[in-house]
Design a protein that fits this description.
With 368 residues, this protein is an alpha/beta fold. It is built from 15 helices and 11 strands. The protein has an 11-stranded mixed beta sheet.
Length: 368
């Protein structure tokens, strides 16, 4: 997760950058979902059956706290399909774990919106473009309007909500619409995710951007971040699953604010790039623990071993390699001067294309 807006503001104002104190767990709480999105890494659907029990989830929360997890993002599938979602999230709060909700918004209604706002510190709703693009991408006519109604409902009840947007060939033309939407609706945060080749994202690999398309999109995103900072617009821009954005941003920032280059570089190195297996972990709906949601290799399963034992396993070669900084990556990464910024990018993308977890990220668009 690359916090673009925060880095611009904190660097120019010489203030501490936002720092992650502890690890994040993305918990795919369920594989049930009311949509059929083209890019879905978990291949979710309404036919899926939940295997995680409430009792097991509550026990796991205590283990997550013991292992140093400070943030849990409830994802899916659609996490609001589970009736015990509030019980689990409130248990996290009692343990001092911050809770985020990643949802399509279709199950947010006047009857539960207040509880959702009170239970989750951040609510991210997926929007993939204008009405036509979004409905086609999500596989349901009318889903765009329902998601927008959820955003309005959260605002009406005093809550804050962000947009989650996945950029692909199908959605790239809607990038400007997402920013216009945020400006018009008073949305606090735009999270733009690059495609990772996993689940339906792997089945639809042809959806991914070309190098030139990606660079054009990131140019637009960075331009908006600069614009918002200079105009004092309080909209937080974050990108995900493409740590090379940090390198390209540094190159752009260096030309615009050369007097602050060293300060930014120091912050980027402290950020550390891809954090899968280091301060990012995933638990899927079947209890499998992975370094991130897209990873092709499992670390263990919470039904077989405690989360603490899995996450703190000093004998795991995979965790050792993921936690080496900077990582030892092959291809052009081996000689890249920026490896200590991006940390080699996505291992699942390397696996999908080269069959090698330690090959270069095939989506890297940085020219040496």
């Amino acid at each position: 997760m690359f916090r673009l807006s925060n880095l611009i503001k904190s660097t120019l104002e010489n203030k501490p950058a936002r720092h992650l104190d502890g690890a994040i767990a993305i918990w795919n709480f369920t594989n049930r979902c009311n949509l059929n999105c083209l890019h879905c890494y978990s291949k979710s659907g309404l036919d899926a059956v939940d295997t995680l029990t409430t009792e097991k989830a509550l026990l796991t929360i205590k283990e997550l706290k013991e292992a140093g997890i400070k943030f849990i993002i409830f994802s899916g599938g659609e996490p609001l399909t589970r009736k015990d979602i509030f019980t689990i999230a409130e248990a996290c709060q009692k343990e001092g774990i911050f809770t985020y909700l990643s949802t399509n918004g279709l199950y947010i209604n006047p009857g539960n919106v207040r509880r959702i706002i009170d239970t989750f510190g951040y609510i991210g709703i997926s929007i993939d473009g204008d009405e036509q693009i979004h409905d086609r991408f999500r596989g349901l006519v009318g889903s765009y309007n329902k998601s927008m109604q959820a955003i309005d409902l959260i605002h009406e009840h005093g809550g804050k909500v962000g947009i989650r947007f996945t950029i692909t060939k199908e959605t790239q033309d809607a990038l400007a619409h997402i920013f216009e939407l945020a400006e018009a609706r008073g949305i606090d945060k735009i999270y733009i995710s690059h495609l990772v080749y996993s689940g339906r994202g792997l089945d639809n690999l042809k959806m991914d951007l070309s190098m030139e398309e990606r660079k054009k999109a990131v140019d637009y995103i960075i331009d908006k971040a600069f614009e918002y900072n200079e105009k004092g617009k309080d909209i937080d821009i974050v990108t995900g699953n493409m740590e090379m954005d940090a390198i390209y941003f540094w190159q752009r920032f260096s030309k615009r604010y050369p007097q602050h280059v060293d300060a930014l570089l120091e912050r980027l190195k402290a950020w550390g790039g891809n954090s899968a297996g280091r301060n990012l972990v995933n638990i899927n709906s079947e209890g499998d623990v992975k370094p991130d949601p897209f990873f092709p290799v499992k670390l263990g399963n919470i039904y077989e071993r405690s989360f603490v034992d899995i996450w703190q396993d000093e004998s795991s070669d995979l965790l050792k390699k993921l936690r080496t900084f900077p990582r030892e990556i092959g291809g052009k990464c081996a000689e890249c001067e920026y490896i200590d910024i991006c940390n080699g990018g996505s291992r699942p993308r390397a696996w999908a294309i080269y069959g090698d977890l330690w090959a270069e990220d095939p989506s890297c668009y940085i020219k040496e």
